[in-house]
């Protein structure tokens, strides 16, 4: 997504672009594929995108795919605590004044308005503070609100996660009211909402998109990059050419030995079930939070029920059948399906889904500008000020394009 975003912004300004994509598809982890077991198209992973994500909105506007998202009018996040069987809805109001925190039916049971204003602590916290240190005072609200939110956003256990990374997310969504918190969920899949429209737009603008082009290395002369080395092909970089590397952190380290990107990563596990959920609670919400179970978030779309577990350090090592059984039990209980027999399932493990967003790794994030005057970096792991999300990836691409376009 970082590379696509950069290419879109550059071609929008009328400059020619060549995209060299290592894989046979675009989009990285943000993509869909046809699964033979389920007999339908599923997303590689579930991504929670919100209406306040300004770079996602700009991307969608450029590629004209707004009509491919569900029309969700209100910010409503249902939760279920499997240990107590309590159910509640986090329901931010429209407008910037957060009067919803004063309404017991719009917040965590047993919580107070002041429990949500603790987000302001993020403004004064230092770089070494972890999520549990900042928000762990009220165990009830921490377990049922701050912890699931932080784990979903940072994909890092809260006792390790860098708390400061939550502030820009909060400032651009919850702090702006319910209109900035509406979930943006693709109707049919991430590829049709993000990737295919981006490729179509780029081709219309004359971009040359080359798949199966894995970068093996590059050469430099002085402060400029002079060649890009692919398998079986070396491309000369002309004096008026500029290069953006939108590579995973681990790959960049092998291409630019003098770089020091984050070195540790955390997994995300997604489990997709094909099941007729017509017997479930009605109407079926597009997303539910789960407390006290194996599942953390359940996404509901037609006959596909998907579970996402972030920072799944132990779960990712478990057998797929064990993961599927545990998460299906959670779905069955949460949605009142009364269907203990597990349906067709696909377990997707992303062992290196994002870099571990710890204080130590936060300071290792690379700047967009490099020591080479014609080389810039993009990627959700670069120093965007945001967590490693789709919003962060797209913003990194826009940032790289802006610097490139301002280059003399």
Description:
- With 408 residues, the chain is an alpha+beta fold.
- The chain folds into 3 domains: 2-70 and 185-263 and 358-405, FAD/NAD(P)-binding domain, CATH 3.50.50; 77-181, no CATH class; 265-355, Polyamine Oxidase, Chain A, domain 2, CATH 3.90.660.
- 26% of the residues lie in helices and 22% in strands.
- It contains 10 helices and 18 strands.
- Helix 1 runs parallel beside helix 6 (190-204), helix 2 crosses helix 6 and helix 2 (54-63) packs across helix 10 (390-405).
- The longest helix is centred in the middle third of the chain and has 16 residues, at 139-154.
Query: Mind describing the biggest β-sheet?
Result: 7 strands, mixed
Work out the number of β strands: 18
N-to-C order of helices and strands: HEEEEHEEHHHEHEEEEEHEEEEHEHEH
Q: Give the rounded overall mean pLDDT.
A: 94
What is the name of the CATH architecture of the largest domain?
3-Layer(bba) Sandwich
Short key terms for the protein model shown above:
three-stranded antiparallel beta sheet, Polyamine Oxidase, Chain A, domain 2, alpha+beta, FAD/NAD(P)-binding domain, 22% strand, 10 helices
Short description:
With 408 residues, the chain is of the alpha+beta class. It has helices spanning 2-12, 54-63, 131-135, 139-154, 166-172, 190-204, 249-255, 320-334, 359-362, 390-405, and strands at 18-20, 32-35, 40-43, 49-50, 77-81, 86-90, 183-184, 208-210, 215-221, 224-230, 233-236, 243-245, 265-274, 287-291, 297-301, 304-310, 344-355, 375-377. It folds into three domains: 2-70 and 185-263 and 358-405, FAD/NAD(P)-binding domain, CATH 3.50.50; 77-181, no CATH class; 265-355, Polyamine Oxidase, Chain A, domain 2.
């Amino acid at each position: 997504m970082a590379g696509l975003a950069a290419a879109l912004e550059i071609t929008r300004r009328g400059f020619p672009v060549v995209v060299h994509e290592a894989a046979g598809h675009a989009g990285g982890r943000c993509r869909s594929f046809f699964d033979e077991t389920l007999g339908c198209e599923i997303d590689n992973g579930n991504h929670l995108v919100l209406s306040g994500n300004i770079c996602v909105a700009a991307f969608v506007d450029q590629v004209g795919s707004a009509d491919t998202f569900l029309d969700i009018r209100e910010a409503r996040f249902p939760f279920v605590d499997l240990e107590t069987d309590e159910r509640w809805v986090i329901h931010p109001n429209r407008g910037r004044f957060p009067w919803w925190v004063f309404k017991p039916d719009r917040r965590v049971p047993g919580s107070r308005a002041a429990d949500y204003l603790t987000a302001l602590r993020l403004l004064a916290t230092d770089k070494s503070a972890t999520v549990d240190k900042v928000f762990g005072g009220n165990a009830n609200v921490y377990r049922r609100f701050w912890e699931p939110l932080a784990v979903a956003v940072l994909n890092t256990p809260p006792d390790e996660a860098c708390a400061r990374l939550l502030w820009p997310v909060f400032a651009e969504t919850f702090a702006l009211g319910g209109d900035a918190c509406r979930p943006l969920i693709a109707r049919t899949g991430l590829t049709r909402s993000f990737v295919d429209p981006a490729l179509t737009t780029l081709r219309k603008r004359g971009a040359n998109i080359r798949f199966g082009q894995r970068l093996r290395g590059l050469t430099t002369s002085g402060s400029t990059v002079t060649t890009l080395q692919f398998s079986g092909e070396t491309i000369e970089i002309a004096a008026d050419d500029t290069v953006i590397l939108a590579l995973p952190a681990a790959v960049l380290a092998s291409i630019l030995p003098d770089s020091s990107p984050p070195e540790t990563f955390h997994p995300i596990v997604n489990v997709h079930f094909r099941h007729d959920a017509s017997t479930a609670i009605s109407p079926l919400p597009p997303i539910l939070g789960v407390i006290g179970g194996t599942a953390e978030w359940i996404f509901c779309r037609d006959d596909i029920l998907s579970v996402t577990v972030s920072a799944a350090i132990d779960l990712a090592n478990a057998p797929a059948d064990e993961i599927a059984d545990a998460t299906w039990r959670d779905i069955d209980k949460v949605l009142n399906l009364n269907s203990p027999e597990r349906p067709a399932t696909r377990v997707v493990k992303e062992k290196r889904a994002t870099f571990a967003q710890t204080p130590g790794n936060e300071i290792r994030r690379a700047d967009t500008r490099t020591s080479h005057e014609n080389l810039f970096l993009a990627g959700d792991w670069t120093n965007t000020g945001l967590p490693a999300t789709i919003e962060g990836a797209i913003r990194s691409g826009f940032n790289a394009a802006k610097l490139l376009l301002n280059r003399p």
